[in-house]
Design brief:
Number of domains of chain A: 1
Radius of gyration of chain A: 19 Å
CATH class of the largest domain in chain B: Alpha Beta
CATH superfamily of the largest domain in chain B: Metalloenzyme, LuxS/M16 peptidase-like
Helix content of chain B: 40-55%
CATH topology of the largest domain in chain B: Cytochrome Bc1 Complex, Chain A, domain 1
Helix content of chain A: 55-70%
CATH class of chain A: Mainly Alpha
Protein name (chain A): Cytochrome b-c1 complex subunit 7
Structural class of chain B: alpha+beta
Number of strands of chain B: 11
Strand content of chain B: 15-25%
Order of helices and strands of chain B: HEEEHHEEHHHHHEHEEHHEEHHHHHEH
Number of strands of chain A: 0
Number of helices of chain B: 17
Number of domains of chain B: 2
CATH architecture of the largest domain in chain B: 2-Layer Sandwich
Distance between the termini of chain B: 67 Å
Number of helices of chain A: 5
CATH topology of chain A: Cytochrome Bc1 Complex, Chain F
Oligomer: heterodimer
Distance between the termini of chain A: 43 Å
Membrane topology (chain A): Peripheral membrane protein
InterPro entries (chain A): QCR7 (IPR003197), QCR7_sf (IPR036544)
Largest sheet of chain A: none
Pfam families (chain A): UCR_14kD (PF02271)
Order of helices and strands of chain A: HHHHH
Largest interface: A-B, 13 and 13 residues
Strand content of chain A: under 5%
Keywords (chain A): Electron transport, Membrane, Mitochondrion, Mitochondrion inner membrane, Respiratory chain, Transport
Shape of chain B: globular
Structural class of chain A: mainly alpha
Chain lengths: 124, 461
Amino acid sequence: MSAPSLANAISKRPWLMRIMKPISNWYCNAAGYRALGLRADDLIPEESEEVLLALKRLPQQEAYDRVFRLRRAFQASLAHQLLPKAQQTKPEEDIAYLSPIIAEIEAEARERLDLESMTITKKK
Amino acid sequence: MISRSAIGRNGQLALRRQCCVKPTNRRGLAAVSSGSTSFSYENADVGGVKTASRDVAGPTTKLAVIAKAGTRYQSLPGLTVGLEGFAFKNTFKRSALRVTRESELLGGQLTAYHTRESLVIEAKFLREDLPYFTELLGEVVSQTKYTAHEYHEEIEPQIKLAQKKLLGSVSALALNSAHSVAFHRGLGTPLYPSSSTPLNKYLNEESIRDFAQSAYAKSNISVVANGASQQELAKWVGEFFGDVPAGASPLSGEPTKYFGGEERIAHGSGNSMVIAFPGSSSFTSGSSYKPEIAVLAALLGGQSSIKWSPGFSLLSKAASSFPGASANTTHYSYSDAGLLTVQFSGSANAISNASKEAVKSLKSISEGSISKEDFTKAVALAKYRALEEGQNIEAGLVATGAGLVHGGQPFQIDQVGKSVEAVSADKLQAAAKALLEGKATVSSVGDLYVLPFAEDLGLKV
């Protein structure tokens, strides 16, 4: 499930983008998931039909890497340790690999709902 | 009301167009037809895409894209079936769901199927919806997305089911086996991948996408309509098939060679046996068309064409003395070869007796001991079948499309009738003799302990 986001509105306005970029970088680093080797999309809750389906649609390599990142993060969290600097997620690695698929699935569901709720009037 | 945003720009355009063009292409059933009412096709080349249509009067139209991409031309096993599965799936312009719902609203029916030589994508609809469905077929051919998840979630399970279905059906197994023994590769490729084909190795959305690039190239497809005027068709094809790639590497099969031989497959559920001989290529191929094979098929027969009687055909007479066996002669004609098959099914004992009887009757034809009356009946039946096939919308459509992409001629019904009529008894006898002298193809599926070998039947393999 994708959370409501202002990202689209911001990225359309270059001046706003310039202001927000450092803030967002600071926030992502402060959130701490990068220090555990995770990506932002790893944090999306799995407990919904859409996300489960999206996880099934991940390419094999991506799915494997995701599980690896999660297990490594659990391990680090249990041991109360951060990963060594080299293994932490770099900002350029923190890409959205799952949310585009979720957005696609949501768009499909929305379209189905639209088509199901339409009413037809015959042309005169 | 269909919400404007929901139906999409293309749908709107199509709907709007229909009401504008209505006066030109809509007419009541009783009115005089504007086009030809004959059963011959007019063909034309529209921007590199071959089209053919016959304007049969009536309120419905059948439109098909016929691609020279049947199992014969697939570069890896299963590609044709995979490509067929991707017909009417998500395209770059609209989703599969939308395609389905929109055509339901217009009362259209969409199907895709394949033969050994052609892949057919077909739409049936009301005559005035021609622009909408021409656009849809153009979109399927040039804009399909070939997504991984559709392949894994929808198409792959279907292919697996088709494999299981093939494995369970003895008659399909026997026919496929006869084809592969007779032609090895090319036409010998099974119509559906057999259950032990390692599909994961060959088949995925990317290999299918690559195959589509050459399968749906302009030089490789033809658009055939039944119940639409040639001008209308040419106009809409010109508009909507512009995006179809010109095609760098056309699919080419090796010229077919007949080999012959024997194959025996043990099977637990049912018995089937196919005796096959080299046949004639289809009428649309031109020179190598041999009408006497069609007459021979009618004379051998097997299934009665009238009620309450085994009929005149030699095999139905033979089979009627062996209850539990049924025989059927079919002539499969392709662009450059053909296969005359006699298929038996039933209990193993009855099949073994009936097949011996069948070879005897073929020998009697080759010796010329066939009555004048039976010969006349066979010619009449063969002529009727050829003409009916041409008149039959489905078969005529595919035959014409395949003929066009193979560089031949459209299926012209009056000429077929004439060439069948011209077959003489001597010609028939010579043809039967040639078949028996050459190598036969024999495939037995079922209880191999009982089913006879080709040697026992007196056939050369």
